[in-house]
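Workshop exercise sheet. Pairs work together: one partner reads the sequence aloud, the other fills in the structure field after running the prediction. Swap roles for the next sheet.
Pair: D.N. / O.F.
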Amino acid sequence: MAQQKKRLRLRRAKRSRMKMREIGATRLTVFRSPRHMYAQLISADGGKVLAQASTLDASLRGGATGNAKAAAAVGALIAERGQAAGVSKVGFDRSGYKFHGRVKALADAARAGGLEF
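Structure field:
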């Protein structure tokens, strides 16, 4: 059951990734586990990670790491690191997850931090 759920999520993710590759957009990729949130800025060709942030970073380690508040902190941090890397316009790759809860909190914080998508 869990393997089928993951397979279907990755199938949904593939569609958006192909579209972003087609238009040549830098991707803001999100991965969520029950305990942590991860975000990466990946170059348009898909070969290089330009910036990354996660709840495993030392600055975000204190307190709960698996809730929407922690996801918003990751979004703000990835926006800051993206600006430092010279990236302002990205495509949001939600990795097949629904756009609600922690994924939405991360996206809203990244937008507030200066990333456009």
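Discussion prompt: The domain at 2-112 is CATH 3.30.420.100 (Nucleotidyltransferase; domain 5). What would you look at next?
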